[in-house]
Design brief:
The complex is a heterodimer of chains A (454) and B (359).
Chain A lengths: L6 H8 L6 E6 L4 E6 L5 H12 L7 H5 L5 E3 L2 H9 L2 E6 L3 E6 L28 H11 L5 E8 L5 E8 L5 H12 L9 H8 L11 E3 L2 H9 L3 E5 L5 E4 L10 H5 L2 H30 L7 H12 L5 H21 L2 H21 L5 H14 L5 H39 L1 E2 L2 E2 L9 H4 L8 H4 L2
Antiparallel strand pairs in A: 1-2, 2-4, 3-5, 4-5, 6-7, 7-9, 8-10, 9-10, 11-12
Helix pairs in contact in A: 5-8, 10-14, 10-15, 12-13, 12-14, 12-15
Chain B lengths: L9 H10 L3 H13 L7 H22 L4 H7 L5 H33 L6 H16 L3 H15 L29 H11 L21 H24 L2 H6 L3 H7 L10 H7 L1 H20 L6 H15 L6 H37 L1
The chains are: A alpha+beta (454), B mainly alpha (359).
Chain lengths: 454, 359
C-alpha cells in the first residue's frame, strides 16, 4: 500500500489506541518521529535522531536523511512492522518515511546455566533475546559456512526465529524438510521454543521428546558441528537441534571437558541410573507379589518383617510413595529455592519416616523409591527425565499384573517403540538401532579424542 | 518400506535369534533321552548337515541376486499363479499356526514354572499383541530389535562360568551312545532344534548387497551350535545321564543352582529374559507368513497380520495341556523341516531350468 499524502495520520491510525506510541516532532524541519519508547535505547535515540536534527537548518535535513542508517520505506505495512520491531520511523514532510534501527532489547544479561549445569566448562546460557543468542553462536563458529535463515512464527505475534546450519556438514535434505515443517505451522502466536517443538512433532503420541533442546550455546555449537540443524526463537532461552537421538539426552558437556575415562564412567553411571529409575520400583512390586524366591534367605526375613505391618498390597504401596515423590518434586519446582529446601526436608525425612512408622509402607520400599527418584535426576536432561517417570509408573502397574513377565512386556513395547521412531529421516535409537560400531564410541562410551579421527 | 534394506551383518542376529528357541531349555534332556551317554557329540554332525543346508540357501541367494523367491517361483510360468495361490495361503496359515504354537509352548512352560495359577490364554494373547506390534513395524525394525535383544540376552551365557568348579569329566563316562532309545528320531528332533535359518530365504530383497554378506548366516548358525554344544556339555558334566533323562528342562534346573549375595534363584529372570528370543522366533515366522500372504491378497499389513494371528490362535485353541502342545509342536516342526528342505530344492531346480532355457 503506497500513500504519499498524510502519512503520519495513516500510521497513527494503525496504532489507534496504542498509547505507548511516542511521537516526537521537529516542526521547523517538518519532521515527525514515531517509535515505541520501551523498545528503543535512549542513547541510540539520542545519537541517531535527537542530536542530528537539533540546531540544523532546513536544507541540511536531506543530508542527514541520506545517511546509511536511514532506510527509506515505501510500504505502509513494513513501516508499521518496523516500528513494532523497535525502529524509529522518521516521517519527512508527511510523505517520505525512513526507518532507523535503534532497537535495544530490554532483557536480562547473559547468566550462568541454571538447569544444565556443568562442573567443568563454559557457564553461560542462552537468554530471551534472539540476537544475543545468535551472537553467542556466531562468536563460537567464525565461518561463513554457518548459514542463518530467518522466519516469522505466529500470524499475530510475528515471533522471530532463526534456523542455523553449517553448509557442507548438514545434509540439504534435512534443512529442506525442517523448512517445510516450519512453513506449515499455522498458529496465532508462540511463547517458547518448547511449544514450537510440539508443533513440529510428527509423533505427538510418543512419551519421548522428539527434539533436543538445550540452554547452552556450547552444546548447540557442537550439535551444529555434528551436522544438525539448530533453531532459535525470540523470547526463548533455548535452542532446539534435530535430528535427535535417544542417547543425546544422556550426554553432558562434562563428559567432553573431563578426561575420557571419567566421561565414560559417568555415562555408564547414567545408563545404570536409567535402568534403576525405570525398573527399581517395578522390580520391588514384581518380587513382593510374584517372585519371592529370588530373595536370599537372609534378606527374606527382613523383607517379610518390613512388609508384615503394611495393610496394602505392594502395588498400592508403591503407587502411594511414588505419588508422594511426584508431589514433592512438583512442589519443589514451583516454590522459590529457599522454601524448596524446606519441602525437601519435610517430604524426605518427615513424611518418609512417619509413613514407615505408621505402617503405611515398608522401609525397603522407601529405599527403593528414593533411589529411583535420585536416579531419575542423574539423567542430564529434564525433558527426558519426565518421560522416564511416566514410563516408570507404567512399569509398576505392569509388574503388579504379571511380575517379571509384565516388566518384560512393557520393556519390549518400549524398545519396539524407540526403534521405530524416526526423526527427520534418522532413527531415534541410533547408533544402537541401526547398529553402528563407529558411532558407539561417542554414545555409550566417550572414547579418547584420538580415536574419533577417521 | 520396500526400498529400505538392512546391512548383511544383521543376518547373524536374525539367524541366531530365530534358531534359538524354547527347545534350548530341554535340549540336554532330548539329547540324553535319545542318544544316551555322550550324546552331546551328535550336535557336531547335525550342525554340519545344517551348515550344508544353509549352503543351499546361500547358493540360491547368489543366483537370485536379491530377487525375492516369490518372483523366482512365479517367473516359471505365468499361469502357475492358479496353483500357487492355494499353496501360498496354506503355507502362510501353516506358519501362523506354527508360530502361535511356539508361543503357546513357551508360555506353557512359563506358567508351569512361575505362574501356576494363571490361565495361559492371557499370556498367549499378550505374546500375540507383542508379535502384532513388532511384525507390523516392518523387517528393518525387526532386524534392529533382534540386535538389541541379542545384546540383552547374550551375556547370560557367561553365567556358565559359575558351574566350572562343579563340572566333572567323570560324569561323561567312557560309553558312547549307550542306552540310546531312538537314535534316528533323535537326529530329526535335534535337526528341528536348528530350524529357523530358512526364514532367510524370504529376506533376499531386504538385504543390501555386499560382498560375502551371506557369511553372517553361517556365523549365526555356528554361534547357535556353539551355545547348544557348550550348554549340553555343561549339563552332561554337571548331571549324570540318569538325572538328565529325568529332568524335563535341565537348563532351568541348572540355572536354579545359581545363587548370589543379593539374588537367589536367578532362573525366573533368565527364563523370562529368554522371552525376547522366543518372541523373535515367533515374529519371524509370522513375518514370513505375512510376506507369503501378501502375494495373494492386497490388504494392509495390519489386517493381514491380525487375520493370521487370529487364525493361528483359533486353530490352536483346543491344545492346552503340555502333552498336546508337545505333540502338536513336534508334528509342526517336522512339517517345517520338510518345507525347509524341499523349498530350497524346488527353487534350485527352477533356477537351473531357467538358466538352461536362457542358454
Amino acid at each position: 500500500m503506497y500513500i504519499n499524502k498524510n502519512l503520519s495520520a495513516h500510521i497513527k491510525g494503525r496504532f489507534d489506541d496504542c498509547d505507548d506510541l511516542v511521537t516526537k516532532t521537529f516542526p521547523e524541519l517538518e519532521i515527525e518521529v514515531l517509535f515505541f519508547g520501551h523498545l528503543v535505547g535512549e542513547e541510540e535515540l539520542n545519537n541517531n535522531i535527537v542530536q542530528p536534527f537539533s540546531n540544523i537548518k532546513n536544507d541540511e535535513v536531506k543530508n542527514i536523511l541520506r545517511r546509511i542508517e536511514f532506510k527509506q520505506e515505501e510500504d505502509i505495512n513494513s513501516m508499521v512492522n518496523g516500528i513494532l520491531e523497535g525502529k524509529a520511523l522518521v516521517i519527512f514532510k508527511n510523505s517520505l518515511a525512513y526507518a532507523v534501527d535503534i532497537y535495544v532489547p530490554k532483557t536480562r544479561s547473559v547468566a550462568a546455566a541454571e538447569i544444565e549445569t556443568v562442573i567443568v566448562g563454559p557457564k553461560e546460557a542462552f537468554i530471551e533475546d534472539i540476537g544475543t543468542n545468535l551472537s553467542m553462536i556466531r562468536r563460537r563458529i567464525k565461518s561463513d559456512c554457518l548459514k542463518v535463515l530467518s522466519y516469522k512464527i505466529g500470524t499475530i505475534t510475528q515471533t522471530k526465529m532463526y534456523l542455523l546450519y553449517i553448509e557442507g556438514i548438514t545434509s540439504p535434505v534435512l534443512v529442506k524438510e525442517l523448512q517445510e515443517r516450519i512453513n506449515n505451522i499455522d498458529i496465532k502466536g508462540i511463547n517458547d521454543l518448547n511449544q514450537l517443538i510440539q508443533y513440529l512433532d510428527r509423533k505427538p503420541l510418543s512419551i519421548f521428546p522428539q527434539y533436543f533442546t538445550t540452554e547452552r550455546p556450547d552444546v548447540s555449537t557442537s550439535k551444529l558441528l555434528e551436522g544438525r540443524v539448530i533453531c532459535l526463537l525470540d523470547g526463548s532461552p533455548y535452542s532446539l537441534s534435530t535430528p535427535t537421538s535417544f542417547f543425546e539426552f544422556f550426554q553432558s558437556p562434562d563428559d567432553y571437558n573431563q578426561r575420557w575415562i571419567l566421561g565414560t564412567l559417568s555415562r555408564a553411571l547414567r545408563f545404570a541410573a536409567l535402568v534403576i529409575t525405570l525398573f527399581a520400583s517395578a522390580f520391588y512390586v514384581a518380587v513382593s507379589m510374584f517372585h519371592y524366591e529370588i530373595i536370599p534367605v537372609k534378606l527374606l526375613h527382613e523383607f517379610i518383617k518390613s512388609r508384615s505391618d503394611v495393610p496394602f498390597n505392594p502395588l498400592i504401596e508403591a503407587l502411594i510413595i511414588e505419588s508422594i515423590i511426584e508431589l514433592l518434586r512438583e512442589a519443589g519446582a514451583r516454590l522459590p529455592s529457599k522454601i524448596g529446601q524446606t519441602i525437601g526436608i519435610v517430604g524426605g525425612i518427615v513424611v518418609g519416616t512417619a509413613a514407615v512408622e505408621a505402617g503405611f509402607t515398608s522401609n525397603i520400599l522407601i529405599i527403593v523409591v528414593s533411589i529411583s527418584a535420585i536416579s531419575s535426576f542423574v539423567v542430564p536432561h529434564i525433558i527426558m527425565t519426565a518421560s522416564l517417570r511416566i514410563a516408570r509408573f507404567i512399569f509398576i502397574i505392569l509388574a503388579s499384573i504379571a511380575g517379571f513377565f509384565g516388566i518384560i512386556f512393557g520393556f519390549i513395547i518400549l524398545l519396539i517403540h524407540l526403534c521405530s521412531i524416526k526423526n527427520m529421516g534418522e532413527y531415534y535409537f541410533k547408533p544402537i538401532a541401526p547398529l553402528s560400531l563407529k558411532d558407539l564410541k561417542d554414545t555409550i562410551i566417550r572414547a579418547p579424542y584420538q580415536f574419533f579421527k577417521k | 518400506m520396500q526400498n529400505e534394506k538392512f546391512k548383511p551383518f544383521y543376518l547373524f542376529f536374525i539367524t541366531y535369534m530365530t534358531q534359538m528357541g524354547i527347545v534350548f531349555f530341554s535340549l540336554p534332556n532330548i539329547i540324553a533321552d535319545h542318544f544316551g551317554y555322550n550324546g552331546w557329540i551328535m550336535i557336531i554332525p547335525i550342525s554340519v548337515v545344517v551348515l550344508i543346508h544353509i549352503g543351499l540357501i546361500a547358493k540360491i541367494y547368489s543366483f537370485n541376486k536379491g530377487e525375492s523367491i516369490f518372483e523366482t517361483i512365479e517367473s516359471l510360468n505365468s499361469k502357475a499363479k492358479m496353483i500357487l495361490m492355494p499353496l501360498y495361503i496354506s503355507l502362510s496359515i501353516f506358519w501362523s499356526i506354527l508360530s502361535v504354537t511356539i508361543a503357546k509352548h513357551y508360555v506353557h512352560v512359563m506358567k508351569f514354572l512361575y505362574f501356576p495359577q494363571t490361565d495361559i490364554q492371557w499370556f498367549v494373547l499378550i505374546t500375540l499383541i507383542l508379535t502384532f506390534y513388532l511384525v507390523t513395524r516392518g523387517i528393518i525394525t525387526i532386524a534392529h530389535i533382534c540386535t538389541i535383544f541379542f545384546f540383552l540376552s547374550g551375556p547370560i551365557i557367561l553365567l556358565l562360568f559359575y558351574f566350572v568348579p562343579d563340572f566333572s569329566f567323570l560324569q561323561f563316562s567312557t560309553f558312547l551312545f549307550n542306552e540310546n532309545k531312538d537314535f534316528y528320531g533323535g537326529m530329526i528332533e535335534l535337526y528341528t532344534a536348528f530350524l529357523g535359518f530358512e526364514v532367510i530365504l524370504f529376506m533376499f530383497p531386504y538385504i543390501s548387497k555386499e560382498k560375502s554378506g551371506f557369511k553372517y548366516v553361517f556365523l549365526g548358525h555356528l554361534y547357535t551350535s556353539f551355545l547348544y554344544f557348550i550348554v549340553t556339555i555343561f549339563c552332561y558334566g554337571f548331571n549324570s545321564i540318569q538325572q538328565l533323562t529325568r529332568q524335563v528342562y535341565p537348563v532351568v534346573t541348572l540355572m536354579k543352582y545359581i545363587e548370589f549375595e543379593f539374588i537367589e534363584r536367578l532362573d525366573s529372570i533368565i527364563f523370562i529374559l529368554f522371552y525376547l528370543k522366543v518372541l523373535i522366533t515367533i515374529t519371524m515366522y509370522v513375518w514370513i507368513s505375512l510376506v507369503t500372504l501378501k502375494r495373494v491378497v492386497k490388504w494392509s499389513d495390519n489386517l493381514i497380520v491380525f487375520v493370521l494371528l487370529a487364525v493361528g490362535y483359533i486353530s490352536t485353541l483346543a491344545f492346552v495341556t503340555k502333552k498336546e502342545l508337545i505333540i502338536l509342536l513336534s508334528t509342526l516342526t517336522r512339517v517345517q523341516l520338510l518345507i525347509s528342505v524341499f523349498l530350497p530344492l524346488l527353487l534350485l531346480i527352477i533356477i537351473f531350468k531357467k538358466r538352461r532355457s536362457n542358454g
